[in-house]
Amino acid sequence: MLRDDTLAAVALLARGADRGVRWRLGLAALLAVASGALAALAPLALKDLIDTLTARPARGNGKWALLWGFAPSDLASVGALAAAYLGCQCAVRMLAEARPVLMNAAEQRLYADLRGRYLQQLLSLPLQFHLDRRAGELLQEFQQATTGYQVILFHLVNSVVPIVVEACAVMLILMSLRQPALTGVIALTALAYLLVTGWRTDALRATAAAVTAASADVQAQLAEGLLHVEPIKVFGAERRTVAGVRRASDALHDAWARLQRERMRRGVALIAVFGSAMAAALLLSLRAVVDGSLTLGGFVLSNLYLLQVVRPLEALSGAVRDVHQALAFVKPLMTIMAMPAASVAPVVSADTAKTAPTTAAPAISVACVRCTAPT
Known about the structure:
The protein is mainly α. The chain is built from twelve helices and no strands. The chain is elongated and about 100 Å long.
């Protein structure tokens, strides 16, 4: 259901994607793939550097021994590994800085097209639809939908794509350590994270939908109070109007509190999984070092890669949680965009209008109109 709703939401936004938007999004995705691969390779360079330092004790004569403690030949390999580690770390951060530039340019063009299509759809709907909606409610729903789309696009490019690449690279490197127990712990950790991610998703979406409805209610109450200042003052309804806004604000506060409690439950469960996995990995890697089946660099690499696996899994869990919330924000806009447009009378020429039969306007009568004020 999450996949279908996400695809439907993205398809609605992507209708306004021109060639410039597509190549920007594609390039941002490629940068995300490169970022995930480099993030996975950086600890491997650190592991080789540690093994090189421990396998080659300090030696050499003259200035090399005084400055570096290594012979020139050893210093070249150490420098190359250190440069590779530093280069991977810097490249990951550089790519992370470049992605928002591309994403922002593409997003703004998509949102501009979405605004136009949203307004066109609203103007094509029957008048009764607008009469049934309160002032400011439609604008608030569009603003929330834009916020939801920002969350969805951010996680698709900055979370899902690099996470998949990084997780695959990490698992392949861990298998090369020939530590099946440690690899099994990491695999079980990934499975536990996925189970927690799918836990109570319906409750999360329900609370997010409640936030959307309460926020629209607050916006509508404020807009109506500002648009109808004159009748409010004439009939002395200031207190009642303010009380209504405060009740709506209290309802919004309670809805956000329920949503945050739901998010916290998932966060506590993920922390429990993380603590258990770290304890198991430390015990297994320490035992492997004592047995001599794992080098010091392998010990550092195994624990770093557990963190390397957990970090994208936590990001994936957060992405699923945020996407559920974002879809609740986008749902009202999707519902409006799917409504059938009102039938529009065909445009006729002036000559046709002269010969067309005329009908009498309906009679309108008003009776028993009263205007009272509280005493």
